[in-house]
Amino acid sequence: MKALLLKDWYILRKQLWVWFVLLFIWSVVPTLYLNLMAVVYGAMIPYSVMAYDQRSRWDSFARMLPYSDRTVVLSRYALGWLCIAAGGAVMLTLQSVLSLFFPRFDCPLWLPLTALCVGLVLLDINIPLMLRFGTEKARWITFLMTFLICASVGALSGLVNDAKAVAAAVLSLALPGLLALTIIATAVSIPLSLKFYRENR
């Protein structure tokens, strides 16, 4: 799997700097919408790799290499997991450092945990869709879901004066259920993706 992730790195390295710049900007702004986007956007990074793979017919070539179908599929998830984790780590680190000087940058633990769960659930939805319908058809669903989730958080921030306090109260009750949903979604998504990948052979 390391070799597959290295292949993905060579594909993405020219455009990842743009993501890093956006990640930095989204992380240092004390806004729920942008903070969530910094983490959730990592779930969309595998789209670029899978789109390139489909155009270059990489999947046909990969079947001639000593990689099992499961390893190829899991490498797509591993890339998403790494990007989501990187987004969460950067956002939490930057806001924690800034909170030492500016109290409004205080980053409660529920924010990165919630963002990680939302990002993972989106990833669990996106990869099977892309394997089943192709990246061109699935991308609109992906963008729409990401926009709706982040826009909902943005609307909450605009309607509530202390959005973080309200969100903290709600998520203190909802977070265990969200964690359970994330585990279930991942457990269902991986076998489903493997099934779609094999059907497209």
Keywords:
9 helices; mainly alpha; globular; 201 residues
Beta strands, count: 0
Low-confidence stretches: none
SS field, number of helical segments: 9
Radius of gyration: 18 Å
Order of helices and strands: HHHHHHHHH
End-to-end distance:
20 Å
Main beta sheet, described? none
Helical fraction: over 70%
General description of the model:
This protein is an all-alpha fold and 201 residues long. The chain has one domain (2-199). The protein is built from 9 helices and no strands. Helix 3 (32-40) crosses helix 7 (110-133), helix 3 packs antiparallel against helix 8 and helix 4 runs antiparallel to helix 6 (69-99).
In short:
This protein has 201 residues and is mainly alpha-helical. The protein is 83% helix and 0% strand. The chain has one domain (2-199).
Which helices and strands, and how do they pair?
Blueprint: H1 2-12, H2 16-28, H3 32-40, H4 45-55, H5 58-62, H6 69-99, H7 110-133, H8 135-159, H9 163-199
Helix pairs in contact: 1-6, 2-3, 2-6, 3-6, 3-7, 3-8, 4-6, 6-7, 6-9, 7-8, 7-9
